[in-house]
Task: structure prediction
Amino acid sequence: MNKINIKNTDIEAPRIVVGCMRLAELSKDEMNTFIHSAIEQGAYFFDHADIYGGGKSEEIFGEAFSSDNSLKREDVIIQSKCGICKGHYNLSKEYILDSVDGILKRLRTDYLDVLLLHRPDALVEPEEVAEAFDILEASGKVRYFGVSNHKPMQIELLKKYVKQSLNINQLQFSIPVSNMVANGMEVNMTTDGAIDRDGSVLDYSRLNDITIQAWSPFQMPEWKGCFIGSSEYEALNKKMEELSKKYGVSSTVIAAAWILRHPAKMQLITGTASVDRLMDIIKADDIALTRQEWYELYLSAGHPLP
Result:
């Protein structure tokens, strides 16, 4: 699998990240098979969060991984997130530290390669985040840090106090949900896509060496479900089917390859508990869409070209 270097780290990572949100439904043996299947295909970067399955995803993953002597901790990258609570967000020093201890216990590991702040906390005190990060780094519990769903100015506020570099930002991104691209394409227009809803986070990330991890890569706007096969996106599905025949892959692979084609060198988070679907998505790493094909997919999703 093709790899990228996460800037300001020593991490050489695959383009495909194995999202573990839905893995709580797997048994220990199924989880073991899932982990092996991913690693065998070069997908050795696993993304967790303390809220996934109420902690069950991490727990089953940790049990399956630690009980298999053929699996070595140093051969994988494990990332997790904290900050989302029931009914509120919490990025206080105490909560971050307690969350990481719980994550490590469930995963049965001594350290995380990456910790992300899961959502912006309106009541965040960046000085407390900085103190928590210093403790986690000094104790060896976390190697690197980042955020999820943060705007540039929210990251800048954190950076004023946090001494560690923030290397990753997880952001929702798919062909239909591509406002990160649209507001740059439709600049100086009065169209809906011209609205800058995220502070030009795509350009900001590229300027500041922050790796974007695209989550929900097959999702429609407003959480209406998967756009692949949806009647709401007939033109897009027709174009994906056309390219599927050309490249000999599924429409899912084409949709994933669209994200990987962007020069920002994003990672794609899979988010499936199916080994077969995971194997299919991984094929996108071998597909290099042309510039024209990339734009054809973008336009077929209903985005204008001013």
